[in-house]
Amino acid sequence: MSAIRFDSLVKQYGKQAAVNNLSATIQAGRITGFLGPNGAGKSTSLRCLVGLAKPTSGSAKILDRDYRELENPLTQVGTVLDSRGFHPSLSGRKNLQIVAASAGISDSRVDEVLELVELTQAAKKRMKNYSLGMKQRLSLAGAILGNPQILILDEPANGLDPAGIAWLRKFLRAMADQGKTILVSSHQLAEMQNTVDDVIIINRGQLIASGSIKDVIGEGTLEDAFLRLTEGAN
């Protein structure tokens, strides 16, 4: 069984197709980079995947089910689609405690994930005083609260400095080494080349390449392959 599957996914806004007949499979236990130019349809595809947008046709499934059909999503799928889901006037710890309480997760797990994302020292600080990078780390903490087997991340490196990006690479690899499946969208191609096992590249809502990182880039770099493939699709 595939961990994530897009099957002829179409999402239209009016007459504009943001996603156009996308079919792709994400294998379990691997890190897959979801790549494409701005406006390629990546975020829309991910929103369809986690039930924030309804497909016009086709499907986007997790563990062969629609997201809304999952019995306890927080313990099966962790998501980072933006860092705006928390209350700015509450501390990072309090925000996570509220999410944890809704899913029957203990406060001890909150402290554990704060340590994992290296926010223990800032746990009592109000989120509105967090830097963008700290907000991204808090979102990651929220995503792993339920110890899910699947992580879906949209631009998780946004706002991170070089040290933070290196930390994120190690964090994702550690998650994958535990057998977790990670689908990550990013524009940082050099970093993706050093992080992912597989890639999916889309342009104008359509799939233009998928496979292992080695198969897709050949003898060159991910940036070379990305530019060649996306320019050829224009």
Automatic annotation (TrEMBL):
ABC transporter domain boundaries: 4-229
Keywords, ordered alphabetically: ATP-binding, Nucleotide-binding, Transport
Stored InterPro entries: AAA+_ATPase, ABC_transporter-like_ATP-bd, ABC_transporter-like_CS, P-loop_NTPase
PROSITE patterns (alphabetical): ABC_TRANSPORTER_1, ABC_TRANSPORTER_2
GO molecular function: ATP binding; ATP hydrolysis activity
SUPFAM superfamilies associated with the record: P-loop containing nucleoside triphosphate hydrolases
Family: Belongs to the ABC transporter superfamily.
Record protein name field: Unannotated protein
Naturally occurring in which organism (per UniProt): freshwater metagenome
Classification of source organism: unclassified sequences, metagenomes, ecological metagenomes
